[in-house]
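Input (structure):
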């Protein structure tokens, strides 16, 4: 049996102006307002203002982002099911 891969994902935020991440597998998308990443713990979405890459080393899984961070959330990669309103259910 193959040993489970050790997860090395961690993040450290400093006054919402600098975000240091480890365990980054890939950067899927980024611009001044949003970063979409794959980490070894799932997809991570970061929203902010004037975001930019200070350091990126995918061999080490390291990413440092600077700018103002508004929020972030993880997803497991599956499409998000949208709850339909009662009007949406009527017109299926």
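Output (sequence):
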């Amino acid at each position: 049996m193959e040993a489970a891969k050790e997860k090395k994902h961690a993040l450290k935020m400093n006054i919402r102006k600098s975000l240091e991440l480890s365990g980054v597998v890939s950067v899927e998308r980024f611009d001044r307002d949003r970063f979409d990443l794959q980490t070894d713990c799932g997809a991570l979405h970061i929203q902010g203002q004037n975001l930019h890459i200070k350091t990126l080393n995918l061999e080490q899984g390291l990413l440092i982002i600077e700018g103002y961070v508004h929020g972030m959330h993880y997803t497991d990669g599956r499409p998000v099911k949208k709850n339909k309103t009662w009007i949406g259910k009527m017109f299926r």
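Notes: The chain has a mean pLDDT of 85. Strands lie at 10-14, 18-22, 24-30, 34-39, 42-57, 62-75.
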